[in-house]
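From the pipeline queue, job 12 of 40. The input is one protein chain; the requested action is below.

Action: predict structure.
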Amino acid sequence: MSGHSPSPTPERAIYGFVLYLGTYFGFGLYFIWACVPEEWLHSIGITYLPQRYWVLAGPIYLCVTFLFLVVFYVAYNFTITLPLDSINTITDKHARYVDHETKPVPAGSVPPLHDIPLSQVSKVLYKD
């Protein structure tokens, strides 16, 4: 069996369950740290904790970082996109055009994968 199969396996179920429990355990610890007074935590022997500033600052920093990454990803894609007047936006060396008149496709079969010529796309889009 292939190692890259998307089918469920017992190992994936175990990893998922451990991740599920770990997430709830981590949230529980965060909630206790955020809501329980420090005197109560000191009375049970928990003395080394981050400052309460990080109760709100940590999640806010994570959200802002996520939003920055989304904006950066979109901006990066704009920078690597070719200009509209570049010939490479129309075709490149890997283009595959199929002539259906010389190679007819049998009835009921899937046609081969190919690029659609720009003139055909323009005819459909602009009805010229």
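Job complete. The chain has a mean pLDDT of 87.
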